[in-house]
Specification:
The chain is mostly beta strands. The chain is built from no helices and eleven strands. It has strands spanning 5-7, 10-13, 18-23, 33-39, 46-51, 58-60, 68-73, 78-83, 92-99, 117-118, 122-127. The strands form two sheets. Strands 2, 4, 5, 6, 9, 10 and 11 form a seven-stranded mixed β-sheet that branches. A four-stranded antiparallel β-sheet has the order 1-3-8-7, with no helix packed on it.
């Protein structure tokens, strides 16, 4: 059941930045670990980052470290993905997801099977 709504995608040039948002209408949002994934055409879904419910613990993929930052505002039931220095290889549909069972992040947060709820995705296209 999809209850998450991503926004903020678009067409940008290489080197630009974008901030994606993911709104979760559930009042239990503050108890969810949240993740960001992306999927490019003809490629498997790829983990980007995850953040614990309180927002003080995060984990990133190697490709995201140093360029992407995940954060959340529990007052707004929203999680963000700040993306800097975007490159054409970052072109993909970006998804947020909710892990309702765990209140921590670790290397296992990269497995999409941990997440029960997904958004519809937002497209990010980076031109060279």
């Amino acid at each position: 059941q999809r209850r998450l709504v991503e926004s903020g995608g678009g067409l940008v040039q290489a080197g630009d930045s974008l901030r994606l948002s993911c709104a979760a209408p559930s009042p239990s949002f503050t108890t969810y670990t949240m993740g960001w994934f992306r999927q490019a055409p003809e490629k498997e879904r790829e983990f980007i980052a995850a953040i614990n419910p309180s927002g003080d613990s995060t984990v990133y993929s190697d490709s995201a470290k140093g360029r992407f930052t995940v954060s959340r505002d529990n007052r707004k039931n929203t999680v963000y993905l700040e993306m800097n220095n975007l490159q054409p290889d970052d072109t993909a549909t970006y998804y947020c997801a909710a892990d309702r069972k765990r209140s921590w992040v670790n290397s296992g947060s990269s497995y999409s099977s941990r997440y029960e709820s997904w958004g519809q995705g937002t497209q990010v296209t980076v031109s060279s």
